[in-house]
Specification:
single chain, mainly beta, four-stranded antiparallel β-sheet, three-stranded antiparallel β-sheet, rod-shaped
């Protein structure tokens, strides 16, 4: 899912920043600011968005919007976190203009991008006792090593292991 990131791996996500002038007047000197979560690294922005002057913030400026007009920009980021403890990373966008806004409560928006852990559990079972020592009809003790490996990239939680014995074996 492109709207989720994987802890322990780098996930590239593109956010859309949409600004609408709901009027009733034209807006001039519109500036848009998109603040990136500390876990995000700026990759690129559309239409001249500047993501390098102020680290962690992408800006577009000096935009004019007639009443009812809108602009759409994109911001592409890499999300890299080793922690599975984060439920989400947050992207925050805001817009201002030279004019007094009749409804400033809709001038910003937050997008939370949830994490989606990705694990690769590997189980390796090895007989530590030479299986050739098994003698039919006699009691033979065989010791096994069960090794569990998480090949990641995310931390694995709630892992459980079961080892089913052959009906001829007892624990």
């Amino acid at each position: 899912d492109p709207n989720e990131y994987v802890p322990g791996a780098t996930t590239t996500i593109t956010y859309n920043v949409r600004v609408i002038n709901n009027g009733p007047s034209d807006a001039t000197g519109v500036s848009i600011s998109d603040t990136l979560d500390p876990q995000m690294t700026f990759v690129e922005a559309s239409d001249g968005g500047d993501g390098t002057t102020v680290p962690g913030t992408v800006t577009w400026g000096d935009i004019s919007l007639a009443s009812g007009d809108e602009v759409n920009y994109t911001v592409t980021v890499d999300i890299t976190t080793l922690s599975s403890d984060l439920d989400a990373v947050t992207n925050f966008a805001t817009a201002d203009s030279d004019q007094t806004d009749s409804n400033p409560t809709n001038n910003d928006d937050t997008e939370d991008t949830p994490s989606s852990a990705l694990v690769d559990i590997e189980v390796v079972k090895t007989a530590l006792t030479d299986p050739n020592e098994y003698v039919p009809g006699a009691t033979t003790t065989i010791t096994y090593n069960v090794r569990v490996i998480n090949n990641g990239p995310s931390d694995a939680t709630g892992v459980s292991i079961s080892d089913t014995l052959d009906p001829q074996m007892t624990f």
